[in-house]
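Entry 12.
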Amino acid sequence: MSIEPVVLFERRVTTAEILYRMPDHPDLLQSFIWQTHDVIPKFPRLRRFLDHWRDHIEAPIHSIQISAGSLTGTANFNAAEVEFRFH
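Predicted 3D structure (tokens):
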């Protein structure tokens, strides 16, 4: 069994799911998916995007879920039978 070291400050495909509230319907959460190549763990492009959102969009952010994957390598497909989401 080999353990690969985590490479920091490497560009990876980054996906952010942003839950936000619309100003005219504050009781409802809406989802926005944003994907880019970014440097982990600091995520400078994601931070710029969130700064832009805060400064120019009137929908307050409720929560953000971030995932980052590898840019290189073979693609793996695993079918999920069940998906669980907790709030």
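Annotation: The first strand starts at residue 10 and ends at 22. Strands lie at 10-22, 25-40, 61-69.
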